[in-house]
Amino acid sequence: MILWSCFFHAQNTNSSLEADRLIKSTEQFYITGKSNNVLNYSEKIIKLSQKSQYEKGLSYGYFYLASYYYDQAKFKQSIDYAKQAQKYSDYLETDETHSARISSLLGSNYLLLELYTLSFKHYRKALEILDGKKQKTPTDLLTESAAYSNLSYIYENINKPDSMFYFLQKENKILKTIDFKDDYVQNGCSCLGYGNYYLKQNKIDSAKNYYNKSLEYFKENEHPCKIESLMGLGNLYASQKNYSEAQKFYDQALKNFDHNNFPDILSELYRKIAELKISQGISGEAKYYQDLYLKIHNELDERMKKERDFALNQVMREEKIKHDEEVKNTWRTTFIIISLLIIITGFIIYLLKKSKHKTQKTIEITEKLIKEKELQEQESNKLKQQLNEAFDEIIQLAKDNNPSFYTRFQEVYPKFQAKMLKLNEAFKPSELTFAAYIYLGFTTKEIADYTFKAVKTIENNRYNFRKKINLSPEKDLQIWLRNYIDAE
Fold first, then answer.
1. Is the pTM here over 0.85, yes or no?
2. So where does this one cross the membrane (predicted)?
3. What is the pLDDT of residue 455?
């Protein structure tokens, strides 16, 4: 028996050591963007760690698997595996670096699903975890810089160039302190961010400089940021009508897909090439690339809609579980309080009897209190049911772009308009209706879809609305609006 125990322990030790070795190798593939290698090695880590229930190996294995599916734009699988990696809480308490990376990866998934509030929340969580560390490793600093980089990307998407630049600078400040063999990846991606910023500002020379810097960092290495830097240079030359140079960089970007598969980037590249061909009047080739773009884009868009719904439903389920637990705790507390009240009431009745007071009156008072409590609970449940039904109704009216949407919305949320006009008396009905959509949690793309407007138009509406209420760029509009309206 002792020999068997020693043999089993030795087997577990060997499995753990082999898993650690695989983790070290997979980390290099992960940092350098070699997705297919990450997939193969992560599956080996999980299989090996499951035999001995090695928590570190399981958490890292699922994390790397989540990162692989993220690169493939398969966000449902990525979110599932990232949450699986988070389940090993005992191990994660000892490895804050890894815990922060999982939160950051979840933030990246929600970012590409355009669930910006959820994305912001997870990036902030990652940064908070690392803020508590006294001695930060190069990996910690890379995680922090990546979080700031992606926060800048959020603000780029919602057309907030000042906030975008602010987070790019925070990222760059951290990168200057890192002395790490593979920091070329984050430096290259950072330069890509600056290139995109300056191109949007129409500062051509600065944009070209940063795109070229990005390519210098990557050299012969493959990475999604390298592809996007090549596309950035293609976009830059296309904007100057230097079509031959633009095509040259688009072609270089295409070659990087020989050994990689990043469908979201590839569809965007096909779209840019189609636009370039249209500008040159080459209709046949334009149609060819347009068809390639539509094929990938439509498949990706359909999948992203489903995965966005999945992500939202998953968050809602988690919130419901949390809410149910809070309700359970509340009931437990209420039960204790009621029990104490009954004991106190019984004691009072005993004292009243002993001192020859009127017992019947005390009993009637007690019964009345219990009945009133029951009636209050019934009214509360009835009010909750009515509110849920009204909420479902106004959501459907909003999706249908029904003219009666805002009228019905005011009936359900009567203090909304009055509080909005306190912010700015000059709000137009259309702006109040737009604010209602934001309050209900609709994304920019969803508002554009349901109101039959361009995404760019909705982004401008959002920007103008923030200006009218003097809301700073760091604050999430929907969360701020909710807190403001719902505050007593």
1. no
2. 331-352
3. 93
